[in-house]
Amino acid sequence: MVFHQICPYPNFTRQEWQSVIKTNPYDVKKPILPDSLSNAFHGAIVKHSLGEDSYMIPDGTDLTGPPHEHLMKSVPLLAPSKNSEDEHCVKYLHNLTRPLFLGLKDYEVNFNKAVKGTNKRPDFSCNVDKIPFLNSEIKPLGCGPLQKTKDMIKVHLQTRKAINQQLSSRGGPGESVLLNNFGDVVQTYVMDLKHDGMYRSWPFLTSKLVIDQPSMPLIESSFSHFVSLERHISALAENFKKRPEGTFTPPLQIQYMREIPNSPQIRRLLN
Predict the structure, then answer these.
(1) Alpha-carbon distances of 15 from 4, 6, 98, 206, 235, rounded to whole Å
(2) pLDDT tens-digit profile of 56-78?
(3) Is the bond leading into 80 cis (omega within 30 degrees of zero)?
(4) Domain boundaries, given as residue ranges, for the chain
(5) pLDDT tens digits for 22-43?
(6) 70, 67, 119: which is closest to 98 by C-alpha?
(7) 176 with 236: CB under 8 angstroms?
């Protein structure tokens, strides 16, 4: 996805788009989890499928032990056709995100909590100095295609705004991450600003959540996705915090910034 006043690629063929995608600088090419942990997940899944005790012995990471045990026991036999956003987050997301994103970090985390005194309920986000390095839109099982399209546009606009805030306050890094979770599908992207007015949204990772017993083999893929996501956000937050506050010589990207259109429709979408 490219955010530009006039898209420079309006007539690309499928093959030409594939050539662009192959240049993705954020493509994950190496295994995310070490072999020992991957084998532990595989063994636990096999035991679980046989009805045996699938508890994983903690190995020094935050991925095993009680969070894994709770996830193994909490998923239903069959997933419901529809549920609330609260139920969705508690049952399917928090077991993955909380062990990884909480703790001593360079960023602050919001977990789908209502803002006191307002009607706002921001989705999962990671922030440094109130600038989001992760924006997300989360919709539970049963959400419709129109809502997916609206939220996809909304989270991209929020991420574009975050990049402008980074560049205006500390001159970088000019990258931010966005997450879409629609039903059982989790998609993450990295947006950057490397050319004049062009906010490029690159695919990062895609995985499916464990929502019922038949989908239990997906647990390793889901964990791997969030492990890699947290590492990338941590690196961006560390990069940002190392930059000096106040007066600085803006990098070239500062010349590339474009403000979001201030139309009533855009304001309504973002608010």
Answers:
(1) 22, 21, 40, 21, 33
(2) 544 444 445 545 555 666 677 78
(3) no
(4) 75-270
(5) 889 999 988 898 888 888 788 8
(6) 67
(7) yes
